[in-house]
Amino acid sequence: MRGRVTLAAIALCGAIATPARAGDEPARAFCSDRPGLGTPACTLDPGRFQLELGLGDWTRDRDAGSRTDTVAAGDVLLRWGAGDHTEIQLGWTAFGHVNVRSGGLSADESSVGDVTIAVRRNLRNPDGSGTSLAVMPYVTLPTGGDAIGAGDVGVGLLAPMAFDPGGAISFALTPSVAAAVDEDRNGRHLAYGGVVGLGFSLSDAVGASLEAAVVRDNDPAGHSTEALAGVSLGWMASPDLQVDMGTNLGLNNASNDVQLYVGLSRRF
Questions:
Q1: What are phi and psi of 23, to 5 degrees?
Q2: Residue 10 belongs to what H/E stretch?
């Protein structure tokens, strides 16, 4: 089943070569949740769909005496413009593999990921122009396995906001609060933080972003504060297709050391 779903997603992305029909060009600028650490405040045109696919994602974390490598593929996000200011999202990871090395021993585990359902309600400028504001509640359902699944239901709220003056530089902020799943996979705790970022238009087709994220996690097993810096790049291969890549670097001991990823977004 997992293989069939992944192949279906890849086949859907194969439609990127299909040109848009006359009169189907969207009124809004392309709006993608990929790449980067933050979340956009813009929403899709009513009735439009968008598929965002993480083709590959690798994360490494080292601590005293151990190293953990996590690989994910088929990170799928399906978005639908449900109204002029509203979109519905469905996310799922088709495959995740975790390798832990410690004391000369190695352990491997693989599984699918959890399902995330979200609604983004834009409060101002759904096309992302000027000052754009939104709220985005979400719920994560424990459909994944032990490797990358949380093990219990999680809920949260994002409040993305952006300021785009129409030039080469834009500013974005994503505060967040969540009832995150405990490390022991049973119960929830408070987690909160935010992402701040600068976007740069390098050309008509290429954009880049620099971001920083701080998240406070009050897990009963031990409180921690994660700090990350991210750099990402997106290339518009066509008005409805973006290809992206990026890296995130941990800034303290509580964060993963490095993450590399590549993916694409296709609007229909």
A1: 85, -5
A2: helix 2-13
Q: Tokens 């490797």 sit at which residue?
A: 147
CB 41 within 8 A of CB 244: no
The partner residues of 224 in beta bridges, in order of sequence, read 217
The answer to whether residue 233 scores a pLDDT higher than 50 is yes
The encoded tokens of residue 37 equal: 């650490």
When pLDDT is cut at 50, 70 and 90, the band that residue 167 belongs to is: confident
Among all chains, which residue has been given the structure tokens 């399902």? 115
d(CA 4, CA 112): 13
Total Cβ atoms within 10 A of residue 4: 9
**Closest to 52 in 3D by CA, of 240, 232, 248, 209:** 240
| CB-based contacts of 139, cutoff 8 Å, min separation 6 | 116, 117, 118, 153, 154, 155
Backbone angles phi, psi at 81, to 5 degrees: -75, 100
Asked whether the beta carbons of 87 and 81 are under 8 A apart, the reply is yes
Q: Name the phi and psi angles at 227, rounded to 5.
A: -130, 130
Integer Cα distance of 35 and 47 in angstroms: 23
H or E element that contains 106: strand 105-111
